[in-house]
């Protein structure tokens, strides 16, 4: 009996150590990588030669779309990522678009020991590629059979409850500029995914490209900034940007729209700097905006006893509102050259937001 007990204890210890090493989700839906909470910032289509530069810029990793049955392209990317300490999100397009769960399972079994793999990216926009909900679920089951620990992500261009059980993480890619919609479409789609996601974490993939092939322009830098912080104000658990380069915009973003590229790099750096508060335990959302204007978003973040308030005007008109936080005594706005104290009266302060403006406030203790 003693031998059986010792074996059981060793097995438990081994299982716990393996679980800790493999990326997994915590109870709040955040990724845990090597026992640390990670708020991932993913950039699509990063070539292997740019892994170091993009990691230094603030990006966690990139997706890799594998269109061949032999997975040679994925092998190449994983080897490069291992050397540069970059993360990979593999999409086995060959198996996904053909709905071949057995082949998908074999791919996962082949690469599941690779530390570079952050998660399994089941499929991109399944409705567009005629991947049925049942087909997606069958591939999800196959992936989890091969690797029950790593989360599985599914990217939806349209929120459909039928696909929710085919993933551990639901991602959405609202592209308001390409679809000629208001920027608030970003927040609305995230909210919809949360509503139908049954508690699953939600990631957002944002439009950092120009759909020139379809007659649509690049987003302006201010629009990308607004979309980014609008998404963060919804309480997402990961953020993605499309793309380093793509055929739709006829080249690399750095060459086709340098100003948008510089804004993207700036955003990646900012998100990395604040990643600790995006993945921290959030307080009850006690802030109240009066009037509560459609298209104006707020979120109160807390970490280590400190609080920050994020305000985003997703509309193309200026707005005025009053922010009330119970117990508020002092608040200061973060500005480009430091901070600026705001007068507080009856736990409230007045705010004027320009079109598409993003603001951060530090909630100061009395």
Describe the structure.
- It is a single chain.
- Helix content is 33%, strand content 27%.
- With 366 residues, the protein is an alpha/beta fold.
- Strand 5, helix 3 (72-84) and strand 6 (87-91) form a beta-alpha-beta unit.
- Helix 5 (101-111) runs parallel beside helix 6 (133-146) and helix 8 (221-232) packs parallel to helix 10 (258-278).
- The relative contact order is 0.10.
- The model is unreliable at 5-19 (pLDDT under 50).
Helix count from the secondary structure assignment: 10
Average pLDDT across residues? Answer: 93
Helix and strand content put the structural class at: alpha/beta
Give the strand content.
25-35%
N-to-C span? 61 Å
Radius of gyration: 22 Å
Shape: globular
Instruction: Estimate the helix proportion, in percent.
Output: 25-40%
- How is the quaternary structure best described? single chain
């Amino acid at each position: 009996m003693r031998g059986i007990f010792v074996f059981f204890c060793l097995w438990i210890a081994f299982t716990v150590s393996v679980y800790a090493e493999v990326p997994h989700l915590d109870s709040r839906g955040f990724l845990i990588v090597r026992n640390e909470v990670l708020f991932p910032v993913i950039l699509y289509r990063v070539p292997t030669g740019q892994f170091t530069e993009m990691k230094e810029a603030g990006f966690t990793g990139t997706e890799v779309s594998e269109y061949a049955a032999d997975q040679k392209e994925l092998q190449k990317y994983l080897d490069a990522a291992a050397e540069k300490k970059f993360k990979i999100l593999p999409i086995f397009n060959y198996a996904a678009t053909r709905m071949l769960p057995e082949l998908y399972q074999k791919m996962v079994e082949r690469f599941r020991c690779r530390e570079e793999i952050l998660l399994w990216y089941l499929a991109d926009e399944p409705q567009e590629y005629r991947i049925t909900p049942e087909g997606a679920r069958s591939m999800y089951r196959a992936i989890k059979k091969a690797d029950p620990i790593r989360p599985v992500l599914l990217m939806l261009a349209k929120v459909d409850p039928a696909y929710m059980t085919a993933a551990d993480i639901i991602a959405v890619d609202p592209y308001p500029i390409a679809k000629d919609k208001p920027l608030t479409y970003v927040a609305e789609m995230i909210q919809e995914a949360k509503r139908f996601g049954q508690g699953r974490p939600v990631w957002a993939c944002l439009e950092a490209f120009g759909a020139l092939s379809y007659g649509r322009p690049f987003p302006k830098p201010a629009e990308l900034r607004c979309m980014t912080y609008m998404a963060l104000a919804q309480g997402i658990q990961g953020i993605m940007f499309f793309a380093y380069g793509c055929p739709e915009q006829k080249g690399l973003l750095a060459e086709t729209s340098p100003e948008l590229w510089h804004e993207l790099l700036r955003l990646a750096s900012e998100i990395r700097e604040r990643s600790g508060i995006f993945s921290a335990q959030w307080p009850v959302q006690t802030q109240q905006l009066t009037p509560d204007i459609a298209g104006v978003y707020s979120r109160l973040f807390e970490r280590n006893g400190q609080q920050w308030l994020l305000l985003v005007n997703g509309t193309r008109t200026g707005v005025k509102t009053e922010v009330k936080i119970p117990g508020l005594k002092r608040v200061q706005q973060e500005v480009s050259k430091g901070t600026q104290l705001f007068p507080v009266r009856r736990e409230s302060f007045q705010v004027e937001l320009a079109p598409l403006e993003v603001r951060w406030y530090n909630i100061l203790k009395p």
